[in-house]
Specification:
The protein is mainly beta and 441 residues long. It has a domain at 3-27 and 46-53 and 91-358: 6 Propeller (Neuraminidase), CATH 2.120.10. The protein has helices spanning 3-18, 113-124, 325-329; strands spanning 35-36, 67-68, 72-78, 84-89, 95-99, 134-139, 149-154, 163-166, 169-173, 177-182, 195-199, 210-214, 221-225, 244-248, 255-260, 265-270, 277-281, 293-299, 310-311, 315-316, 336-340, 344-349, 362-367, 380-387, 390-391, 396-400, 413-418, 424-428, 433-439. Strands 2, 22, 23, 24, 25 and 26 form a six-stranded antiparallel sheet that branches. The N and C termini lie far apart (60 Å).
């Protein structure tokens, strides 16, 4: 590394440690203007270096728990996990937890300033450790809201994330491939090594998670694949089948792009009223505190959502070269903004939830939290109400307290899912826990 590069890295890390940047992150919009179908889109805020405002990973002190909204209570469903990211509830009520972290990059990753700073950010945020590469089964046999059984369900995986059961076949989305193994009801460990169904984009894996949902008839699988960059700065040749939701035929392994221009689509679920696929999407960085908004949206076959050339429909990102007016012209505006830099990852509709009438129809969203906004955003679980299959009002906090009084991260919510008894489970990958939210007694 040259002296100039070393000095630049040291400068950025010094700024990050101080919670500062080379210039302001831009004015802050009121919260009401950052959420909903028509968010405020301020002018982009340029700066010499990216704003870096990291909440250092601290974890929870013994006896600490997140703060539930009024009328709710929370308890630890499972503690002592290792980077629990994603959740899946089996038909018998067992809960599968993907314990996972970013895979090692092919060739060791890049050596440039951006990559070095990114690795430092991940380590400070609690994501710099090797991936556990396993799925754990949690069983709450007595129904008290605490899993008294824990089993190693599958290991020797590659940064596993999404899980879907179709009949007696359990699919797992690794960082580099979709795999499948036979599953028998009640088993606590896969009896056979998973076999590959289809390759998934890997390599640099700037966004490594691969979420997964099956079609309602089980004939197709949908995988969310994030971009390999912020705004295609490594070239579009690295973005093939990325920033997209892929449709896979599990019988043949054939892969097709279902929808594109989605910078990092993570949580996916089927709208129980309209039957549409919905996803939560993380948008791009380095345009300011409130730009652009992360979002959730319905997604239909063939739709394009702008990345990298535009955001929130047809708002052009002037940093991207060459320009692509034709792509911008066909960019669809998302349905609902979730606030800028909230890192909204988990998404699940409320079907089966028993958390009271105010949380009976809508979507729960797990917001992992910002690393590049001042003040921080996200770090909570929210609820967006729906009516007649569409968003119908401002978000409500469901679970907070993940940021401590000194700005440290006690936890970071990721996957959310409704369990077989109507409680909401939340994977917390910094707190190494799965929390269960239920109606207060």
């Amino acid at each position: 590394m040259t002296r100039l590069c070393a000095a630049a890295v040291a400068f950025v890390l010094g700024l990050a440690a101080a919670g500062l940047s080379a210039c302001s992150g831009g004015p802050l919009a009121p919260e009401a203007e950052r959420f909903g179908p028509s968010p405020a889109l301020p002018a982009p805020s340029s700066r010499l270096l990216p704003l870096v405002r990291i909440a250092p990973a601290r974890g929870w002190a013994e006896g600490q728990v997140p703060t539930p909204a009024a009328g709710l209570q929370v308890q630890a469903f499972a503690l002592g996990l290792e980077h629990p990211r994603w959740l899946y509830v089996l038909p018998n009520g067992d809960v599968l937890v993907a314990e996972s972290n970013a895979p090692a990059r092919e060739g060791g990753g890049g050596g440039g300033l951006r990559d070095r700073v990114a690795r430092w950010i991940m380590a400070r945020a609690g994501a710099g450790t090797p991936s556990p590469d396993r799925i754990t089964l949690l069983r709450d046999a007595d129904g008290d809201g605490v899993a008294e059984q824990r089993h190693l369900f599958a290991d020797d995986l590659t940064s596993p994330f999404g899980i879907a059961l179709v009949g007696e076949r359990l699919y797992i989305a690794n960082a580099d491939a979709l795999v499948v193994a036979p599953y028998a009801p009640g088993q606590t460990r896969l009896a056979a090594r998973p076999e590959k169904v289809a390759d998934l984009p890997a390599g640099r894996n700037h966004h490594w998670t691969k979420s997964l949902v099956a079609s309602q008839d089980g004939t197709r699988l949908y995988v969310g694949v994030g971009s390999n960059s912020n705004i295609a700065e490594f070239g579009l040749e690295e973005e093939v089948n990325r920033a997209a939701i892929l449709e896979i035929d599990p019988a043949t392994g054939a892969v097709a792009v279902y929808a594109s221009g989605l910078r990092n689509p993570v949580g996916m679920d089927w709208n129980p009223v309209t039957g549409e696929l919905w996803t939560a999407v993380n948008e791009r960085d380095e345009l300011g505190n409130d730009l652009p908004p992360d979002y959730m949206t319905s997604v239909r076959r063939g739709e394009f959502f702008g990345w990298p050339w535009s955001y929130w429909g047809r708002t052009v990102d002037t940093r991207v070269r060459p320009e692509n007016p034709a792509a911008v012209a066909r960019s669809r505006t998302p349905d609902y903004a979730l606030g800028a830099h909230t890192a909204s990852l988990g998404l699940v509709f409320t079907r089966g939830a028993r958390l009271g009438p105010d949380l009976a129809d809508g979507v729960f969203v797990g917001q992992h939290g910002s690393w590049n906004r001042s003040p921080p955003s996200g770090y909570k679980v929210i609820f967006v109400p729906f009516a007649d299959g569409r968003p119908a009002g401002p978000p409500r906090d469901v679970l907070t307290g993940f940021l401590g009084p000194d700005g440290e991260a006690r936890g970071r919510p990721v996957g959310v899912i409704v369990d077989s008894r109507g409680g909401l489970l939340v994977a917390d990958d910094v707190g190494d826990a799965v929390w269960r939210v239920s109606a207060a007694r």
